[in-house]
Every structure is written in structure tokens, then in C-alpha cells.
Amino acid sequence: MTRKTVLKVLTSMWSFMAGPREQAAFLRVWLTSWPEKILFGTDATPNTDETSWEETGWLASHELREALAMALTDMIHDGEITRGRASELARMVLRDNAKKLYGF
């Protein structure tokens, strides 16, 4: 019997734990080694009486996209990837990895 470990990084809670620069540093490590394992997500849930799912969903989405742009831009500037590869990685994180996982 073969045993296979599946590990995915879901980004949904990052905006509550770190700012975009810290998220970018973490993303860069994963983008370099395991880009197919990163899934974009937002934890759009009310936190307090003053904030609802609209605010938390917007914040998580906005900050992750900003962090992804920072990580990919830094990787391009450091000569690690091309602009075309950056676009491919962004599509993977924001859409294609989830489509593949869920069979769409």
C-alpha cells in the first residue's frame, strides 16, 4: 500500500495574522518550491458587531493579492522568474490550483 501525503496552504486567515510584506515573504518560499500547493481563500466571516463578511472578505482578498504581487515582483527583480512565469503562478494561486483540486 502506498501512502500519499497531501498538503495545501490555504491563505484565508493570513490577513488576520500578518501584513502584506510578511505574507509576501511566506508566499515567496512556497512559490519557489510548491506553487501548486497554494490555494487562494478568504475567511469572510463577521468578527465583531461593526464588521461583517463584506469587510473581512474584502480585506483578506485585497491583502493577499497585494502580497502575491509583491512576492512575484521581487522574484522577477531578483531574476528568479520571468514576467510570463509570474502571470502563470498568479493564475495558479488565484484560480487554477483550486480548479484542479476540486475537479472543475
How would you portray this structure in words?
This protein has one domain. The protein has a two-stranded parallel ribbon with strand order 1-2. The chain has helices at 14-17, 20-33, 53-77, 83-102; strands at residues 9-10, 38-39. By secondary structure, the protein is mainly alpha-helical. The longest helix has 25 residues, at 53-77. The protein is globular.
Structure described in brief:
The protein has helices at 14-17, 20-33, 53-77, 83-102; strands at residues 9-10, 38-39.
Low-confidence stretches: none
Principal-axes geometry comes out as: globular
Rg of Cα set: 15 Å
Kindly state the percentage of residues in helix: 55-70%
Q: What oligomeric state is this?
A: single chain
How much of the sequence lies in strands comes to: under 5%
Strand order of the largest sheet: 1-2
Kindly name the structural category.
Answer: mainly alpha
Number of extended strands? 2
Secondary structure topology:
Elements lengths: L8 E2 L3 H4 L2 H14 L4 E2 L13 H25 L5 H20 L2
Parallel strand pairs: 1-2
Helix pairs in contact: 2-3, 3-4
